[in-house]
């Protein structure tokens, strides 16, 4: 239902046709237009692009901080795992050493037994028990032969006099 009136030049449809202007003004390439609107819009466009850049920078900063925190947590967990494995290894080594010490202690107790010593002396060294003819008794006098050296009082007084003479 298109009405096309020549005097109205208006079309009643959903997609109207584009009207061509009757004349096209010629623009002089030497004349500069003074338009404050364009400058303002350019400044606003720059500010908008800068604000987007600031928002992008903030987002990037938060992402970097988050990545750094996750990296630090991961590194610390790896250190904890290494320390735990080192502790487990040392505990297993401690168990082995304690077992060896217990075996050595039992061996020492067995070797300090008099029956064991006697058997070893007879078997390895070829020793025999003493007979009554081999025993010799020795008598020692009960007096002491230790002499004590007593310092005379004259020597002590001489030393004291020298020390007092030093401080005078």
* Proportion of residues in helical segments: 55-70%
Distance between the termini: 141 Å
Rg, nearest Å:
57 Å
| H/E topology pattern | HHH
Approximate shape: elongated
* Biggest β-sheet description: none
Number of helices: 3
Number of strands: 0
Topology, element by element:
Layout: H1 36-111, H2 114-123, H3 153-167
Account of the protein in words:
This protein is mostly helical. 60% of the residues lie in helices and 0% in strands. It has helices spanning 36-111, 114-123, 153-167. The radius of gyration is 57 Å and the shape is elongated.
In short:
This protein is mainly alpha-helical.
Q: Could you list some keywords that capture this structure?
A:
3 helices; elongated; mainly alpha; 0% strand; 168 residues
